[in-house]
Each structure stands twice: as structure tokens, then as C-alpha cells.
Amino acid sequence: MFRKTFALCCLLGSLLAALVVTAAAGPAASTTLLSSKLQNPGGARDTQAATPPPGTCVVGRGGCSVSKPAWTSRPRRTLSPTPSPTSTPRPTATPTPTPTPPPSSVKPELSGLVDRTGAPPVSLAPYMGGWVVNVTWASLQPASGASIASDNAIDQAIALIHSTPAYSGMHLRIRIFAGIDSPSWVDAMSGGSVYIYNSAAGQGGQVPRFWTTPVEQAYAHLQVLLAAEYDTNPAIEDVTTSGCMTVFAEPLIREVTDPTSVANLVAAGYTEAADQTCQEDAIAAQGAWTHTHSSIALNPYQAISGSGSVSIDEAFTQTLMSYCHSTLGNRCTLGNNSIRTASLGTQYDQMYSSMKGTGPTLYFQTAQAALVGNLQSTVLWAIGEGANDVELPTGFETLLTATQMQADNQALTADAQ
To answer: pLDDT tens digits, residue range 98-114?
Structure first.
């Protein structure tokens, strides 16, 4: 109802404003403008470390703004007990101009069950709210100074929603991978890359010196370009904050269990203070978006001192939660990519409690299927925490029944109201 009422109010407001402004031009001009308004109403890897030790972390920062056209809200599809699609395909053509919403308007946050690897099976679409578009910075901006690449993974997901009846009414989270997935020109501008290895996941690669000003500015500019392209698109309801990530889109993780990675960072000029500034700057960079939620995947912050000693600073994670809300307001969405049946320890428990208390907009991603324990119990826990959406693991369709998915999806959507 919010989406339909908002869109109608915006249209009526735009029409009334147009009539008042054009009155002085005479009846002919008013009639022409009114007529015009009526004719135009309107591959990815798993994002989570295999076995994050108690104390893994995620963060981000930046800053910018850009004027943009309007976005139009779209009602979510009515949940159906059967998976049979009945709607007709949407055209893939560029949408017509729409009335400008009030400056403070923010799209609803993504809600329901979410497939974190891409579009879900069509047969399960009626029981889900959307999916994650996993896209690398390198693929979006392969050359320095370039605009956003056309027909990228985001464009393809939007086209799929428009062309597939079963996906009509579904929405997207854009998960941007920086870190090891940054373009080579970003590595070069930072003074060279640093090798990082996540021993829990068995994955690693070269990352730019993300804590340096040139990289932070490049990431902020990327957000300006993306926001100009997608902020007004109603299919996109969330974009992640990933400017300070290393291997996974969890910016507070610093691979502290791998001594070589820690030594490499310190030798490259990394400091805890610069890292924490990076985290705040990456959040500020999301200010380029004005209508779309920006989420950040949190973990108890992994701190590395100048001498190379490591520690866990969950208090900084709480500070970052407050910074996100004070900087982005109601567009800030707090999240975590590690939930499972078993506890990850006291520091995670404290973080989850702080997230619930800070809220109100939350998302969770479960652990991989082999690590999550009981998937249904894990989803129910997230619902109890007040989550808007839960990202499911690969193979979720074998771990949840259609009846469970439908009930979970409805409960998460209700949490989002």
C-alpha cells in the first residue's frame, strides 16, 4: 500500500504543481503540460568465509552526492501458495519519465527470503522477495575514469525481472566486490597491491591499499556513477558498503588468523587508525545514493596494531553502527553474513544484541549449507531479531520446504512493514 500511495501522491503533487506554474502561460500551455504528465506517469561467489573464527569483521566509507531523476515505487507481488507464474512479461525498454518524489523519499528496504547467488529457480519465486546481484568493481569500471560498463550484471538482473513473469515484483541487493576484485588501475594508484589470504576459506589475492586516499576517492566516485545510473530504479532496493573489504564483502575482516597477511598489511603502511577512517569514509561514500538503502556487513572488528599484534574490538563495530545511522539516516541497513544454529561466541552475541537495539533495518546472511546447522531454525532466529531479509545458502531448496519458505517470507516481509 505504501508503494501505491506514494506513487499516486507524487503524481498528483506533480500535476498540481505543473498547473500552478503554467497558469500564467495560458490555457493552451496548461493543457499541453497536463497531457504530457498523464501520458508519462511513471556470477557470483559465496560472499561468506567458510568458517569465520569468532571475531571476523566487515566495514566501509566514502562520500559524495549527485542529482538524479526520480524513482517510482512498485507494489510487491502478492504471495501465492503455488509457484505457477501468471503475470505477463515486462518490456525491457527504458522506462518513461516519472514524477519527482520528495527529496526525503527512500525506497523500502529489501524484504523476505533472498537468494544470495542470483535469481532463484522460477518454481520458488513465489516464496521469495528477491536476490543478490554479485558484481565486481573490475567488471563495472575496468578502466580509470570510465563510466559504468553497459550490460553489466546489474543491467542483466533488471532485465530479467522485466522479462520473466515469475520475477515480477521481486527486488535486488547489489553486492559490490572491491578488495581482491578491484580493477588493476586501482591497485596501481594506491602504490601497489598487497597479498591477502583468508585461511578459513582457502581464498586470497591482491588487494589495493584500501586505506589510502586515492583508493577511497576512487571508490566514492564509483558510488556517484552507480547512483546516477541506478538510484531511481525501483527494482534496486539495497547496495552494499564494500570499500574497505579484502577477500569477502565483509569490510571488518582483516584475515588476522594468517600471520603472513598481517605482516604484508603492516609492511605496506596499514595502520588501525587509517583502517577505521576507511570504514567511516566508505559509509560516507554511500551518500551518493539518496533513495536506496546502503547495507554494511558487520563482524566484531579485527584490529591490527603497528607492531602486527592482533585483537578483536567489538566496541568499534558498535561505533560504526552509530556512524552509519548518523551519516545515512534511515537508509542505513545493518547486517551480518555469518548466522547459524551454533553460537559464534560472546562477541558475536554482543554484536547481534547491539544490531537489534540499533536497527531498525536489518539483514542477515546464513552460513554455508554445510555450516549453518538447522537452516529453518536459523531463519526463525533472524525473524525474531527483526530482520527485513535473510540471504539463503546454495542448496537452500533442499533444506526448506515450500510451506516453510512461504511462512518465513511472509514473516520477514511483515517485519519490514
So the answer is: 333 444 599 999 999 99
